[in-house]
């Protein structure tokens, strides 16, 4: 796939297709939130909404203010029309890495990162919360023939996590695999010096939400009156977002529990599940997937800001 900014990798699956970005008419100041699943996507969307509108109460559900452009639940033409009608500064969600997106110098690209093991734990619970029949209906997949089979017993989180660590699924084949995750991070890390590429770490949002929001406002060129900051920061806390889950979840009707979409909002979950030897297996596996300085930043409990 080729755009005017050069060749792009196509990421395609049952629920998404990055080719839907081809020909998208960007505007000066657009923000593209390019995030792997469960690395802080909705959190960063909420922060962008609060900074752009300057009010703790959003004017519409977050999923309409910041649609997932390459999600197949809504027709491409419908998403394009929704974005074309927006008068505010646009901020668009995608799980496509930078090498699958048209890169426009007028646009800010915001990439979130999280310790991969914590992301995986969150992903396990996230998948269990999706209403699979509802998802199949939304993306137009046919009903399987015959009576539905009995669901298999759930795989223990510990076993699933070890299998996820060892998976060899290629980076373009599964958006939720470890190779894909590391490819997404590595591509953004290589471009971190470019003025319109911003890297945000989930651990920093947890540790210093006030500082992160102010840093993002500065990088995005958004001026916020000092008197407005306390209310905006309160609205962006994990607790506040969890209370407003019905208004903030990305796909209404897709989840068994909207509140469970915001499950924990902290780091360190994997260390409660895996042994030291199993953690070491993970580190040995990713050592060949990303540069050492990225791995140090990614695994730090309090990473530094990327200027």
Provide tags for this entry.
307 residues, alpha/beta, two-stranded antiparallel ribbon, 7% strand
Task: Write a short abstract of this structure.
This protein has 307 residues and is of the alpha/beta class.
Can you walk through the features of this model?
The chain is of the alpha/beta class. It has a single domain (2-143, 152-299), classed as P-loop containing nucleotide triphosphate hydrolases (Rossmann fold), CATH 3.40.50. Helices cover 41% and strands 7% of the residues. The protein contains 14 helices and 6 strands. Strands 4-3-5-6 form a 4-stranded parallel beta sheet, sandwiched between helices. A two-stranded antiparallel ribbon has the order 1-2. Strand 1 (2-3) and strand 2 (6-7) form a beta hairpin. Helix 4 (116-129) crosses helix 6 (157-166). The chain is globular, with a radius of gyration of 19 Å. The mean pLDDT is 86.
Strand content: 5-15%
| CATH superfamily annotation | P-loop containing nucleotide triphosphate hydrolases
Helix content: 40-55%
Q: Over the alpha carbons, how many angstroms does the gyration radius reach?
A: 19 Å
* N/C terminus separation: 31 Å
Per DSSP E runs of 2 or more residues, the count of β-strands stands at: 6
Arithmetic mean of pLDDT: 86
Strand arrangement, largest sheet?
Answer: 4-3-5-6
CATH class: Alpha Beta
Count helical runs: 14
What's the structural domain tally? 1
Name given to the CATH architecture: 3-Layer(aba) Sandwich
Shape label: globular
Helices and strands, in order, run as EEEHHHEEHHHHEHHHHHHH
Q: Spans with pLDDT under 50 lasting ≥5 residues?
A: none
Q: Name the structural class.
A: alpha/beta
Largest sheet data: 4 strands, parallel
CATH-defined topology: Rossmann fold
């Amino acid at each position: 796939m080729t755009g005017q900014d050069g060749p792009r990798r196509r990421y395609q699956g049952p629920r998404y297709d990055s080719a839907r970005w081809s020909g998208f008419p960007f505007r000066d100041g657009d923000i593209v939130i390019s995030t792997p699943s469960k690395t802080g996507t909705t959190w960063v969307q909420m922060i962008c909404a609060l900074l752009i509108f300057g009010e703790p109460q959003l004017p519409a559900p977050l999923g309409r203010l910041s649609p997932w452009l390459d999600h197949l639940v809504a027709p491409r033409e419908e998403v394009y029309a929704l974005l074309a009608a927006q008068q505010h500064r646009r901020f668009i969600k995608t799980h496509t890495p930078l090498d699958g997106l048209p890169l426009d110098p007028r646009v800010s690209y915001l990439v979130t990162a999280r310790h991969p093991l914590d992301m995986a734990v969150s992903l396990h619970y996230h998948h269990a919360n999706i209403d699979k029949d509802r998802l199949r209906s939304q993306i137009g997949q046919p009903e399987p023939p015959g009576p539905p089979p009995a669901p298999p017993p759930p795989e223990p989180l510990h076993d699933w996590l070890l299998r996820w660590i060892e998976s060899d699924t290629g980076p373009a084949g599964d958006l939720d695999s470890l190779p894909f995750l590391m490819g997404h991070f590595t591509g953004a890390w290589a471009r971190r010096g470019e003025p319109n590429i911003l890297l945000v770490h989930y651990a920093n949002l947890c540790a210093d939400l006030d500082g992160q929001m102010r840093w993002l406002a500065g990088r995005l060129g958004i001026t916020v009156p000092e008197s407005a900051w306390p209310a905006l920061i309160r609205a962006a806390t994990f607790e506040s977002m969890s209370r407003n889950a019905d208004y903030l979840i990305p796909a209404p009707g897709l989840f068994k529990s909207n509140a469970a979409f915001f499950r924990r909002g902290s780091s360190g979950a994997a260390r409660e599940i895996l042994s030291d030897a199993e953690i070491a297996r993970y580190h040995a596996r990713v050592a060949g997937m990303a540069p050492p300085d990225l791995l140090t930043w990614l695994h730090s409990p309090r990473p530094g800001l990327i200027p």
